[in-house]
Design a protein that fits this description.
The complex is a heterotrimer of chains A (about 120), B (about 325) and C (about 140). Chain A is mostly helical. Chain A has six helices and no strands. The chains are: A mainly alpha (about 120), B alpha/beta (about 325), C mainly alpha (about 140).
């Protein structure tokens, strides 16, 4: 079942995003920021862990996961280390994606050039 | 001051276009192999194509170059003119720049000295300046036009030739409330409409005075909008053709070409070579688009300039 | 002509493209990335015996790497124009925005070219995520302790 849900969750989210892109003036930047915020909200409502449990990597491979990971990091930091923890913990669970993108971006931009 | 009768003549012209424009629409054009033309950056390649055109057209008799393009600070042209022994008037009316150049040249033209009017555009520079990074695959709207890559220059003076500029009408800035930067056709059609209307009124002509009305880069859909606007003002014609919409006939995803170079490319390297038309109205259409102002929720204004061209057989 | 009637005239002439096809493509490609990630995660757990949570992070990194390569080679922008939301919403979209920004600034060097361009498009994701998380965390902490 996890395979079915890991297909369905990102598919439905992408469908909603496509509807928004086609029918409003919002750009891809707006839509991804919107879903990041939604991810944070779902994590706040303790729903995102459920999504990961049932949809597996389907829930962790979308941008909503970034928002959820930011919330998790910030909240656990706050709970365990007080207000300082909110600052130190923010990127603790989402650091992998950011670091990977920056490193690979740097390497690719050294080696290749834009073509269109 | 809108409109004036003038007399000046077009002589040699030279055109370079990009690799995507190499599709049997144009004749007698040098094509680049790719977007870089052997240079290290796209900005340097636009400077290079301007240099190549200027090298072909500038002689000892050339005293003035009038021109512009879509680059910030017109870098493609100003860097290509460095250390050349000519005066330079850089101008900007987006994709109507070429016609603006012809209008100004008609004021300075004489029999002893040559003026070169030049314009260029580069697809990747426009993408980078006005939209997204080059490699970014943003969703493309079906009505978007595609910035053409190329550079065209023409020599202008008062000595007789086959191609005579007989009069012009300068445009006014018009804004019909479009804020969608992907829909330049809809932005620019009202400008072309107002200028054509003013031009015909000032010279007391009907649109049938011309064998052909050639607009710059409204694209397929912008041209339909213009025709409707003209029809509502009782200017009914089948003779309007849009230069941009002719450039990519096989590409379903492009509503046409755009950029200041569309009009001169199609004019010199297709329409005039067909030798079918005696009186042509050239209507350059420019969207005075500023990304910052659109982000600040303003709409996009437009301007359109027109000149009449007579061809002697 | 007033602005509203002009908008109507413009709309009349805009081409009609199939919306259903676009929705299906987005649905399909989003789903394929999801199920592909799940299969890859299972594969990594089976082969390297790592915890499931770590495998999810590895899958994310691999998605970023593949997107970076395809963007650098010039294919990914055509894919995104075709599948649209299906490749923008997964991690591939974030990575594509950063990598294409980095490539764009290449000629102006590292400090003024590559570095600022990298974050041109994804900055809004990071800023909105961080501010939302901060505010919600404070609220959550005040309510639940």
């Amino acid at each position: 079942m996890i395979y079915l849900y890991s297909f369905l969750l990102p598919a439905i989210i992408c469908l909603i995003a496509q509807i928004i892109l086609d029918n409003t003036k919002l750009t891809p930047g707006h839509v991804t920021s919107l879903f990041t915020i939604v991810g944070g909200l779902l994590s706040y409502l303790n729903l995102y862990d459920l999504l990961i449990k049932y949809c597996g990597a389907g829930a962790t491979s979308i941008i909503m996961n970034f928002g959820a990971a930011l919330y998790q990091g910030c909240y656990h930091g706050l709970k365990n280390n007080g207000i300082l923890g909110a600052f130190t913990g923010m990127f603790s669970k989402s650091s992998a994606i950011l670091t990977a993108t920056i490193i690979f971006g740097f390497i690719i931009s050294l080696l290749l050039k834009p073509k269109n | 001051m809108d409109s004036k009768t003038v007399e000046c003549y077009l002589h040699e012209n030279y055109a370079i276009a990009g690799s995507l424009e190499n599709n049997n629409v144009l004749k007698d054009v040098s094509y680049l192999k790719d977007f870089y033309g052997g240079m290290k950056s796209i900005e340097k390649s636009e400077i290079r194509i301007n240099e190549l055109v200027l090298n072909k057209l500038i002689t000892d008799q050339t005293k003035l170059v009038i021109g512009g393009n879509l680059d910030n600070q017109l870098t493609g042209l100003s860097y290509a003119l460095t250390n050349r022994n000519v005066n330079y008037l850089g101008i900007y009316s987006a994709c109507a720049t070429f016609i603006e150049g012809l209008i100004i040249a008609s004021k300075f033209a004489n029999k002893k000295e040559d003026i070169v009017v030049i314009t260029s555009s580069h697809n990747l520079i426009s993408e980078r300046q006005f939209k997204y990074p080059i490699e970014y695959g943003s969703p493309i709207k079906a009505y978007s036009t595609f910035t053409t890559t190329g550079c065209v220059g023409v020599v202008v003076n008062r000595n007789l030739s086959k191609y005579k500029i007989t009069d012009y009408t300068m445009g006014k800035v018009v804004d019909y409330g479009i804020d969608d930067a992907s829909n330049m056709g809809a932005v620019m059609a009202p400008g072309a409409f107002e200028t054509i209307k003013t031009h015909l009124k000032n010279f007391k002509r009907t649109i049938d005075y011309y064998d052909l009305v050639l607009t710059g880069d409204l694209g397929k859909y912008g041209l339909l909008i213009l025709k409707d606007l003209l029809k509502e003002a009782n200017i009914d014609t089948d003779n309007i053709v849009d230069a941009g919409s002719l450039l990519y006939p096989d590409d379903y995803n492009k509503a046409g070409g755009s950029g200041p170079v569309c009009l001169p490319l199609i004019l010199f390297k297709k329409v005039l070579l067909e030798r079918k038309y005696k009186r042509i109205l050239l209507v350059g259409t420019g969207a005075l688009h500023s990304k910052v102002m659109v982000d600040q929720k303003l709409t996009i204004p437009t301007i359109s300039h027109a000149v009449s061209l007579e061809v002697k057989s | 002509m007033n602005h509203n009637s002009y908008q109507e005239l413009v709309k009349k002439h805009m081409p009609k493209r199939s919306k259903i096809k676009k929705l299906f493509l987005a649905f399909f490609s989003g789903g394929m990335i999801g199920i592909g990630s799940q299969l890859l995660s299972n594969f990594l757990v089976y082969l390297f015996k790592i915890p499931i949570k770590d495998s999810y992070v590895w899958v994310g990194i691999i998605l970023v790497l593949v997107t970076a390569l395809l963007t650098g080679l010039g294919f990914f922008d055509d894919l995104v124009s075709f599948f649209e939301a299906g490749l923008i919403i997964p991690t591939t979209g974030f990575s594509h925005a950063v990598i294409s920004g980095a490539l764009d600034g290449k000629r102006e060097g590292f400090i003024v070219g590559i570095s600022p361009s990298m974050f041109k498009l994804c900055a809004s994701v990071i800023v909105s995520g961080v501010t939302t998380s901060f505010i919600l965390s404070i609220i959550g902490w005040l309510i639940y302790g």
